[in-house]
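ENTRY TYPE: paired fold submission
RECORD: A
CONTENT: sequence, then structure tokens
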Amino acid sequence: MTATYAETDRTGPGSPGSPGRAGAPAPGTPGPAGTARTVLTEVLAVAGRRLRRLGRAPGRAIGIVLNPLVSLVLLGFLFRDAITLPAGGEYTEYVFAGGAVQVGLACVGPTAVSIAMDLQGGLVDRFRSLPISRSAVPVGYTVADLLVGLVALAVTAGAGLALGWRSHTGLWPTLAGFGLVALFLYAMLWLGVLLAMTLRSVETISVVAPFIVIVLPFLSSAFLAPQSMPAAIRPVAEWNPVSAVIASCRDLWGNPATTGGGFPGQHPLAVVAVTLGVLLATCTAVSLRRFRTAGS
């Protein structure tokens, strides 16, 4: 992207590639070569820039890793003998799915803050002045943050293995469980993009993000069985989409699961398919539309 900036700054009104030249594409729209390969190149360029920025300031990536690690160590290790599951089983194996899903929740804030800062700093306007697809910018951000999230998920899995977590269903169901977590992670990244395009304030996002990371897991089956919660909170925990993702992962990994006769507990994969599908489609469509019109 640096080379693109330099070429844009050197072009004059009559030079080749200048926005003022007759027949040249308008700023912010793909030219005649706007094929899938061109868009992919633009997405990878934006993703590479994002990864370089994270490499120079790794604090946000470290925060993504620390959130699930703290949950696994404090709850899964220190309190493993103090918490009894209604259906029995090792609490360390029960809590691991909650820690894995928490990686996705922890990605919402850093993605939203980064895009909000770029909106406030004028970087988005600079992207809009370039003859590139505007969709490439948010997609590039989510691709880069997905890679960071997958690294955090791998670290969380290593910590879980060290603390005693095991999968009991074989290679392919185990990989399917992690694939489901990766899909959930990517949906959460687009939720972060939507938050940034809606709130546009770093201060406001910094208030909302901790609610997503901390409160949502405790209002689900991540750390406690819904049956052990107060009656007023139990339906919220059972129907929380996070609970459906966690229950599906526990089934795929053969880990202890919660007991319950409700539809979400009996058919978690169906709930995951509907909720994640609607969430990802809605957040992507709305975010891309708002990004294309940002600053207009």
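RECORD: B
CONTENT: sequence, then structure tokens
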Amino acid sequence: MDQLETRELRYFLAVAQELHFGRAAERLAIAQPPLSRAIRQLERRLGVQLFVRNRRGVALTDAGEVLFREAGAALDAVTAAARRVRRAGDPKRSLVLATKAGASHELLRTLIDAHADERGTAPVEVLLCEVGEQARLLRSGEADVALMHRPFDDLAGFDTEDLLTEGQVAILPAEHPLASREQLTLAEVENVPDLPIARWPRLDGTYPDGPGPEVRTQSQLAQLVALGKTLLVIPASSRAWQWPEHVAVPVLDAPPVTTVIAWPPNSRSREIAALIRTAARLSGADQHPTVP
């Protein structure tokens, strides 16, 4: 049988993450014997061994490694579906739009105002997040749509509509010599000894190599720039969050950045479709909008 129960997947993930049946049972708030029986039953139904059990402990088999990769995504999808169903059944439901705090501010404000002017549309609730979090919020069902940026954000698996393509600027400490320049090049901003570019975590949580400070939030980054410890290069429209201690200078040869509105694939939501149509109209893409 190929069918799997969500309870079985939760049990399996707990053991796979702890690599210890006792700790996994404690985490799940159940006794160890029922957990062991459930895992053995799962292995019999799948016809494979998921764990190697010996005196040295517990380890995943090759088949267990595959299920470990798949189980988390499957449980996330089930959770996301439940969230979307609950929201769809709420007569006072609103659309949740995720966006990086401070990003594409004018576009966001214009979109919300224009959508509110449309008759019979659902209200939009803005969910502000940190860099790179929109994809997770969409996949988990915590957000219905998101404003994201190509080529920086993870757009894999989503439907998208391009809204705005723009250049980038360097955000520098106001007292730095480069802040007086009318324009800069990437080579110049990437080779400032006293202002190494800040490093954001990758999708797996690790940081790329480099001398710049490790940052996780935009507030951290803003203060480090103000203190003269780092600089950053961002889309021109994202400079709305800059502090008085910051200066924005255009970077002429920085690759263009496209703001897109993204939503889960194969959506049949009338509310999402209405918001996408409004966004496409504002961007001038309403001749051939890719609406759900």
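NOTES ON RECORD B: The beta strands are 51-54, 57-60, 95-100, 124-129, 145-150, 159-166, 168-173, 232-235, 246-251, 257-263. Residues 62-88 form the longest helix (27 residues).
STATUS: closed
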